[in-house]
Amino acid sequence: MTAHIIVEHLYVEAGPTEQPVTIVDDVSFSLQRGEVLALIGESGSGKTTIALTLLGYARPGCRIIGGSVMVGKDNMADKAESQLAGLRGRKVAYVAQSAAAAFNPSRRIMDQVVESALMHGLMTRKEAEAKAVTLFANLSLPSPETIGRRYPHEVSGGQLQRLMAAMALICDPELVIFDEPTTALDVTTQVDVLKAFKVAVKATNTTAVYVSHDLAVVAQMADRILVLQRGRVVENNPTDRILNDAEHPYTQQLLNAVQNNDTVQNKEHSDVVLDIGDIEAGYGKITKAGKPEIPILSGISLKVLRGQTVGIIGESGSGKSTFARVIAGLLPASAGYMVLNNQELPSAIADRGKRECQHIQMVFQNADTALNPSHKVADILGRPLTFFHGLKGEAQKERVAELLELVKLPVALADRKCGALSGGQKQRINLARALAAEPSVILCDEVTSALDTVVAAAILDLLEELQARLNIAIVFISHDISTVKSLCDEVLVLYKGKKVEHGSGSSFACAPYHPYTDLLVSSVPTLDPEWLDSRKRDLDALDISVQNTDDLCRFRDRCPVKLGDQCNTEAPPLRTLTSGKSVLCHRDQAMLVAQ
Amino acid sequence: MMAAIKSMPMSGKVGAVLAACWLFLALFGPWLAPHSANEIVAYDVFEPLGGDYILGTDYIGRDVFSRILDGTRFTIFIPLLAAALACSVGTLIALYSAVSHPRTDEIISRFMDALISIPSKIFSLVMIAAFGSSVPILLTITAISYMPGSFRIARSLAVNVANLDFVTVARTRGESRLYLAVKEILPNILHPMLADFGLRFVFVVLLLSSLSFLGLGVQPPEADLGSLVRENLSGLAEGAPAVIVPAIAIATITIAVNLVIDSLRGAATYAARGR
């Protein structure tokens, strides 16, 4: 049997024709019908570029300059644009990373899902809609009959991603390309989406190419894995071989980055840097009761010691970023107190003095937007130096060089604009800017989520090293519980603005957990290819947008181990477990262990 | 700058060359003119092209070529100054508005909306009726009528930038509003604002020319291109170059600037996509 997809000696180059940069360099692989191939590598490794050539498409500025891309009997590399239009969507379909951007917000979902089938004239509208409903059911979407009548903003991110897969599968394509389809999702949602994809692909015997930088995710989906580095294939083997017996050092590096799970040694901490008590905050006008119209956080308390790392975890919408904004003073708290270095900290930034601003520095998730693209690196680092410490001229220059050295960047970068830096370099500059102020507390908001695994691991190492050297406190906000567990001395789990679990980092090493934490922990994919199939399905949150304001357990609608009426009528007590952590749940220790 | 012109499409290059020529004529026109602009040189009125006078003569026998060279100054420099005023004042108010409290922002924005709803021509006619027509008045009127438009564009750009993380970082540092506006936001909206400046320039050229055509713009004995069209209107029936050439001149100035702006925009969006 001949292979379904054969790519041979593919070359793609980018940039001006006089000075081309080769971004895909002699790539060859083949795939049987029904197989799933994963393309894995860092950003810039050419994985998306290769996937797009299967559609016969090269991004603006890129050119396919050699080789063949056979899908069935068609060579996608030398077809004319008009011929390709007939094949795309029908024979080869594409699922993009951001479903939110791929759907037109002003049209109903059904119209968009059946569009390609109607455009290619494959079926009547009625047939197409019937087919779509079956696909919705296969992708385990809630109420498949009616979900098509909604608008894209009326479904959740994970559902939208599955709807996008339905859109791709409607014409029964021979090949589906998944381009990082779960990167933008929460871990708990990711599990459902992956599962739905796997079932749908198997059911239709579709060949699939899965692009990702996350080895653990890929391990669940793929039959073969192609590891790419700088546009070249470094390894191409079945999934089992890659996971158990990786040949290339780069693949081993990727594997190590996933398995990096060393637990923290407990350091000695003494004085309290930041003491936060009973914080309530939210958006909108303050009502007569003294609470904001849309409350987000309620009753959050936290003590941060010098040199300590405190982790805050939760899904999107849990209020973790809001908490950081409250500490930074961007969103004044409506109740509660904050004490910084034994002095009361005003809640609004306008009331804070220069010294108070200096001691709390924020590092944002997305270094692309956190650095002003029209400033040079030297200006970005120099400004806090002048502003807080009055450093100018030579002294400032020297300090900028020191800071760059501290975050392990070459001093020569100082004269560059940050548009020309890589993601990891930008994040280091971002960190260096916070350090320039010489703060007591650094707030890190998802600082590694936008980075590739290997780069992210390097940033985390740097963070630990800096903390040991400079003895600063770090509040580390993340949705990734495995990172938080290994990095933090203390961990706080937030769900819908309420603290559901709080304890030392080591107490999170094993069960018992709060049911929500348990869900978070078990949703992190492992390198075991059987992992996905062994997972039980998460209950879809019925209505995530509703913010509970009463004292009842906010997790009760999703809780797999709910205790009937008690959870619906009584406020859960805050229990202290033997490991020293506190858990907000009706179940006691014995019951939590048993779950 | 040269690189930017080099990377433009053909239409942009044509526009740039034409615009540069007009700028040159506006700067040095009076010295290049073969005759004085107000000297009656021929007994024949509305002479055709060629002949003793390259572009013929006007309704009282003055040299059209010299008059155009002289009038270009007004048609280029008044709008240039007015557009610069409108854009810089508009952008500054917009920046202030973007970094201010939402309520301040709201008040300024609604006031600008009120200004923008006054038709520019009627506003100009009323102002000229009240204060008479002189170059400073024309400058003020045109600058005021195009400032709110510039404000709106600058504000919408600035508000987008003001929500980005790097501005938030500067805020948490406790930076002043002036620093936020000028150092953090302004450099990131400068490019589109320059394109907007070009567009406003074209609008002012057209407004000024039409005012002059109505006899309310630049007053005799001085004349801009719009006044030239008007004073020679009686030659229209004969197809005299004295009325056609200034009209063509106005058209080429506006088209040239438009071509340059369009290709700049194309290049900017292409660069944004490539990043």
Automatic annotation (TrEMBL), chain A:
This is Glutathione import ATP-binding protein gsiA. Residues 5-255, 281-521 form the ABC transporter domain. It comes from Paraglaciecola chathamensis S18K6. InterPro entries: AAA+_ATPase (IPR003593), ABC_transp_ATP-bind (IPR050319), ABC_transporter-like_ATP-bd (IPR003439), ABC_transporter-like_CS (IPR017871), Oligopep_ABC_C (IPR013563), P-loop_NTPase (IPR027417). SUPFAM superfamilies: P-loop containing nucleoside triphosphate hydrolases. The keyword ATP-binding applies. GO terms for molecular function: ATP binding; ATP hydrolysis activity. Keywords: ATP-binding, Nucleotide-binding, Transport. GO terms for biological process: peptide transport; transmembrane transport. Pfam families: ABC_tran, oligo_HPY.
Automatic annotation (TrEMBL), chain B:
It is a multi-pass membrane protein. Gene3D superfamilies: MetI-like. PROSITE patterns: ABC_TM1 (PS50928). GO terms for cellular component: plasma membrane. The keyword Transferase does not apply. GO terms for biological process: transmembrane transport. It is found in: Cell membrane. Its main location: membrane. The keyword Protein transport does not apply. Keywords: Cell membrane, Membrane, Transmembrane, Transmembrane helix, Transport. It comes from the Bacteria. The chain crosses the membrane at residues 76-101, 122-147, 197-219, 239-261. SUPFAM superfamilies: MetI-like. Residues 72-261 form the ABC transmembrane type-1 domain. Belongs to the binding-protein-dependent transport system permease family. This is Peptide/nickel transport system permease protein. It comes from Paraglaciecola chathamensis S18K6.
